[in-house]
Amino acid sequence: MSNEYEKAFSVHVPPERAFRAFTDPTELEQWFTPKFEADVDEGAAGVKADAASPGGYVHFEVTQIKDDELLCYRQWAADPNAGIDVTVVFEPVDGGTRITVTHAGFGGDSILKSDSVRNGMFENYADLMLYLDH
Fold it and tell me: Rounded CA gap, 130 and 42, in Å?
């Protein structure tokens, strides 16, 4: 199994709208998780957050951010050292935004390296596409 996975897709909204769907807790609760709690202002480097998942809470820490263009964060379940690094790039295209999401670091003892968990995460992106396009 590869230690990296990439998913690219387009949505029919401008980059600032797509970016907000990834950084606003209220938006994240519409397509990603039923409960998303951020410790500080959303959309800031260093922000830490927790989200409900079927297997328990998943934790997030934003590592890099450039409004409407780039979002990088670390995601883990039990141990930050067994987590993954996620990079989301937002590119304007005719009629909307191309979003490229790269998940890297599916190694060690992370439950995130299992096919079922990885596939579930990418089902979330299908939910995002429906949410933004409709």
Answer: 23
